[in-house]
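Dear colleagues,

As part of the handover before I leave the project, I'm documenting each prediction I ran so the next person doesn't have to rerun anything. This entry is a single chain, and its sequence is reproduced below.
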Amino acid sequence: MIEILSRSNKSGLGRGQYLQKRRELLDQPVHLVEVDLLLGGKRLPMGGRLPAGDYYAFVSRAEKRESSDVYAWSIRRPLPAIPIPLSPPDPDLSLDLAAVVNQAYDQGRYHRLIHYTDPLDLPLTAEAQNWLRTKLPPSVR
């Protein structure tokens, strides 16, 4: 099962509903991959501290349920490829998150919905926001 976390998965009533669904999935013999590409909201509950990062992927394997593999990266790094476990004896597949997000952006026509000239309202340090502005086209900086 692959879950791409949404705002409702990370806050309010939707968070409780998602955590219940998550518990039910973790009680089953399935692999669960959760991808968190949102800067805001609460992170998923884990037994230990999460590594530093802005974005996360959590890979919980059915045969290794007591722990998850945690992949973390900074907003300054390209989205990575993450492993997607399959049933034995098949090896993991590699999911290129950057390619998936780029395809969703292109096919979803998000360029019509996102206003790049609006101020950034992101939970980032001032340094990270300044860096992010340098990545915008000169016409909207």
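Strands lie at 2-4, 32-36, 55-60, 69-73, 81-84, 93-96. The chain is about 30% helix and 20% strand.

All the best with the project,
I.
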